[in-house]
UniProtKB/TrEMBL annotation:
Keyword NADP among UniProt keywords: yes
Pfam families xref list: LuxC
Annotated source species: Saccharothrix syringae (Nocardiopsis syringae)
Root EC class: oxidoreductase
InterPro entries linked: Ald_DH/histidinol_DH, CoA_reduct_LuxC
Domain of life: Bacteria
EC number: 1.2.1.50
Biological processes, Gene Ontology terms: bioluminescence
Membrane-crossing residue ranges in chain numbering: none
Family in the record: Belongs to the LuxC family.
Name of the protein: Acyl-CoA reductase
UniProt GO molecular function: acyl-CoA dehydrogenase activity; long-chain-fatty-acyl-CoA reductase activity
Keyword Oxidoreductase: yes
Catalytic reaction equation(s): a long-chain fatty aldehyde + NADP(+) + CoA = a long-chain fatty acyl-CoA + NADPH + H(+)
Length: 458
């Protein structure tokens, strides 16, 4: 099955490409005539604009309902292929898709539209003297650290009735095209407003050609990759990026007393195990008030073991396994040289729990390394996070009452854009203002009618 999606109106021949992972390969097609693609997307945009926003929401709802079933054949194929590319277990990918697809139901989409626009139907025409208009064409450059991640920005663009050029991620290229094929079965007008394909990062000619057809750009990736895209964006193009981010967890003594250290550990294990800890929303470190830190770490070892049994970790590549082994050696060396450090781990690299009195070194990107760092109190924890404020995204905050709200405010001032309970770090809703901005409202341009007698007849 192709990893690209070309609407039926694309009639000119494209350029074939092949993506490989070990002995496995998948094929797709890249447009050769981007001017024709741009013209086709502009026409598709006009067709999409005629659909009521609630009909678009309904199309996503029906599509998501089909994809919510784990035995749905296109989903089964995506899970199998994504496991081969990412190395993640099939159960890990199933849970990632459960989370992403669950956000695409009608209730969730309407809640997000209402929160950001007030009245979703301002996208259909004037309501109360105001209307909202999305860009003609959005270019989305997606990353694949979490299977299904492109769905959010793809859906946001289509909800505001923009056509879309989607650059699928090499690390997980299967979901986008497969989802669009189902969407086409439900509502062809919506799916036909998207061209999904792939090009190499160093293929500047294709990137420039795609950019030339876009009015807005949404980019995911590391700081360097996003900077390269940002440098190409024209002044008249709207630009949104989701670059490198870090997330942390905090647990107060009162929260640990209320929940018990075993339950706190179970919630931390969920945060550190979901998506093999590869999401930006996954915690790098949990800062736990000192009197409970060791007990939480001890229980956490059992919780990580159970999480690995229920949802097996993926197979790390050779380089990733070497890096993970080195991280564990460093932790074990620190534990051997100081009384305040300890490591719990199986013989393999399925998971690691580290108790350490220092925030550094950060554990790196994922692979189920749960670090517990004791802190005297939550204000001290916030101060420890200050050097990472520029990249701060998500905080799992275990606190109660006034201490919760005081700490949540301090984290917001520091730079966090999301605060949730431990155990829920990797399950953001569509209503979350992703990285601190209203991602639907930012895409639209507003027009207001004022000082006109026709307002009374609307």
């Amino acid at each position: 099955m192709s990893v690209s999606w070309m609407p039926g109106w694309v009639t000119h021949p494209g350029t074939p490409f092949t993506l490989r992972s070990g002995a496995h390969e998948w094929r797709g097609e890249r447009p050769a005539d981007w001017a024709a693609i741009g013209a086709g997307l502009r026409a598709a945009h006009e067709e999409l604009r005629r659909l009521p926003v609630r009909r678009i929401v309904e199309a996503f709802d029906v599509t998501a309902e089909r994809w919510a079933k784990r035995d749905f054949a296109p989903r089964r194929a995506v899970v199998r292929d994504a496991s081969l590319v990412t190395g993640m277990s099939e159960e890990t990918i199933e849970r990632a898709l459960d989370a992403e697809v669950g956000n695409l139901r009608a209730e969730s989409l309407l809640a997000a539209l209402t929160r950001e626009l007030g009245d979703p139907e301002v996208l259909d025409g004037f309501r109360g003297g105001t209307t909202a208009v999305g860009p003609r064409t959005v270019l989305g450059v997606f990353s694949g650290n979490v299977p299904g991640l492109p769905a959010r920005s793809m859906v946001r663009a289509l909800l505001v009735k923009s056509s879309l050029i989607a650059k699928v991620p090499a690390k997980e290229p299967h979901f986008t095209a497969a989802f669009l094929r189902t969407l086409h079965d439900v509502e062809p007008v919506v799916a036909d407003a998207v061209v999904a394909t792939y090009w190499d990062r160093d293929d500047e000619a294709t990137m420039d050609a795609a950019l030339a057809e876009a009015d807005a750009v949404v980019a995911y990736g590391g700081d360097r990759a996003c900077a390269a895209i940002r440098a190409k964006v024209r002044p008249d193009q709207f630009y949104e990026e989701h670059a490198h981010k870090l997330s942390f967890g905090l647990v107060s003594a009162e929260y640990a007393n209320r929940c018990g250290p075993a339950e706190v550990a179970r919630r931390i294990a969920a945060d550190c195990s979901d998506f093999d800890q590869h999401a930006c929303l996954s915690p790098q470190v949990y800062l736990v008030q000192a009197e409970h830190a060791r007990a939480v770490a001890q229980y956490l070892a059992d919780a990580m073991r159970l999480a690995a049994r229920d949802c097996p970790p993926g197979k790390a590549g050779e380089h990733e396994a070497i890096a993970l082994g080195h991280r564990r050696i460093v932790a074990e060396w620190r534990a051997a040289t100081r009384d305040t450090s300890e490591v719990w781990a199986p013989d393999g690299l399925e998971w690691t729990v580290v108790l350490d009195d220092s925030l550094l070194p950060l554990s790196g990107a994922g692979d189920r390394v749960a670090r517990i760092v004791p802190v005297p109190d939550l204000p001290s924890a916030v101060e420890l996070m200050r050097p990472y404020a520029r990249h701060l995204q998500n905080v799992g905050l275990g606190a109660v009452g006034e201490e919760f709200w005081r700490t949540a405010r301090a984290l917001a001032v520091l730079g966090a854009s999301r605060v949730c309970e431990p155990g829920a770090m990797t399950r953001p809703s569509m209503s979350w203002r992703h990285d601190g901005q209203p991602r639907i409202a930012n895409l639209v341009r507003w027009a207001d009618v004022e000082l006109h007698p026709e307002l009374a007849t609307e």
